[in-house]
């Protein structure tokens, strides 16, 4: 379990870096009316891949931490009253799931766009929304210890 927790904690830095890079790339090139090239495809794909790996690590960690047992022992009402438990068991995983869904939808939809501007616009919208959610639910207090 410590290995998964370590990987989940440190892989998050890579996810954040690549997601910021992919989002910034899409926004800058959308407003700059640039052509969509192979490097743009790769950076958006890499953001998709690293975020999915992070989510998989998170799912493994969620079950390894036996949060289901915690919910059964404590009761959902009590879990919702305790900020740390609510964040770890409910808010963080749910928000990250929504972020992953947005990244996946954005990536899938951008491939169907016929113009470079359409591709960058789609990636900009979905990746920005995902980035906002990720930034909102990163446990910053733990990151800077």
Automatic annotation (TrEMBL):
Name of the protein this chain belongs to: 50S ribosomal protein L27
Record-annotated membrane-spanning stretches: 12-31, 43-69, 89-108, 120-140
Organism, scientific name: Microcosmobacter mediterraneus
Sorted UniProt keywords: Membrane, Transmembrane, Transmembrane helix
Claim: Transmembrane is one of the keywords in the record: yes
